UniProtKB/TrEMBL annotation:
InterPro entries given in the database record: MoCF_Sase_C, MOCOS_middle, Pyrv_Knase-like_insert_dom_sf
SUPFAM superfamilies, A to Z: MOSC N-terminal domain-like, PK beta-barrel domain-like
Ranges of residues in domain MOSC: 121-279
GO molecular function annotations of the record: catalytic activity; molybdenum ion binding; pyridoxal phosphate binding
Name of the molecule in the record: MOSC domain-containing protein
PANTHER family to which the protein is assigned, alphabetical: MITOCHONDRIAL AMIDOXIME REDUCING COMPONENT 1 (PTHR14237:SF19), MOLYBDOPTERIN COFACTOR SULFURASE MOSC (PTHR14237)
Superkingdom of source: Bacteria
Pfam families in the cross-refs: MOSC, MOSC_N
Amino acid sequence: MKITRLNIYPVKSLGGIPLDQAELGVRGLAHDRQWMVVDDIGRFVTQRQLPHMARIVVRLDDEALVLSHPGTAPLRIPLQRDDQPRLPVYVWDDQCQALDEGEEAAAWLGAVLGDYQGSGLRLVRFAPDQRRNVEPHYLAPGEQAHTAFADGYPFLVVSEASLAEVNRVLETKGVAPVPMARFRPSIVVDAAEPFAENGWGELSLHEGAVRLGLRKPCQRCKITTVDQATGEIAVPGEPLRTLVQMNTRLAPGGYFGQNAILLAGEGSTLAVGDELSASAQP
């Protein structure tokens, strides 16, 4: 089994960046979900509320995070800075401190995304001294894990075969197949059996120097219905409705992929083509 794709999403719910290789950290692949858009009370805003967030293109260069959108000059945010004011922000039920990227970034988001429920929007960065813990009741005894602005876990692992099976079912319903981008994974593998990842407890590679623990099936939301290139919803409810119908062995809901944590290998590099092995859940 091999890694077929690696992706990061530096700003939560904006465009992703495909990579040939990525450095592993306990909070995810380097630069993943280190920024987030919030409203004027610090509550996170995503494509669930503003699907056209998908149209903001994100890239990283040696010095800056760069956001681009048609008809607007790009926004550059220096990677190395420590002069931002702090503010409390909220991701689901978690509160943590973030660094406000300032008025220029807020104005840029307002120009691109418009008003949000009468609120201004701001860009914030995860404060490096913060620790946002993963929900402990899904971890093995003695395990600890934390993440940045991801919904709940530092990694999301899915397989090519699972996507192929979802698309096979969609086509029987007369619905066009969807690309992997709809599911915004960080690590994609070429497992032979659809949904094999639901039975894995651990992935290992580099002769065991890197180990990922798969800890919770990923329940999907309406973001899967958003075209990540256009920000539009061409077929309302799909593929989420199909996932709900297919998930007969899991809890009620639409699931795709497994949330994972880093067990060993901080600072190591993953690359597309790396071989890995899976062990079953205990």
